[in-house]
Design goal:
Blueprint lengths: L19 H10 L5 H19 L3 H12 L3 E8 L2 E8 L2 H18 L5 H13 L4 H15 L9
Antiparallel strand pairs: 1-2
Length: 155
Amino acid sequence: MRKSQAKKLPISPDYKYKDKLVTRFVNNLMWDGKKSISFGIFYDAIGRVSKITSEDGYEIWKKALNNVSPNVEVRSRRIGGATFQIPTEVRPDRKTSLAIKWLIRYSRERNGKSMAEKLANEIVAASKGEGAAFKKREDTHRMAEANKAFSHFRV
């Protein structure tokens, strides 16, 4: 076990929206340390979202993140030789982390020419309550609901 909890490094807000959440998203989107390319992809995607929906792309992105973030998840726990899936509440920090990771993951799996296009389409779908990332959230909630009987084993 760890002696003390790891310190969180301070994160600087992005230059366009002055939002730390955008930087967190871009850090997850980044490959091989190419942060400027990731910012380019993100801003391009937000621009595309604005064109598609004719609304503020940044607000649509925030709505999509909110729609995708899970409230409950299942955690495995061994009790008397059997492993149970126990539904637990998700911490706020982990909520946003999961939402970001799911949005990016399912964007990458989408069909499209560029990553910005794929990301834009996934953001629009998630803001409407559809798409693969939103489906993942629904599946997570369904799994927690199915295992509600074991919630008394919660730690």
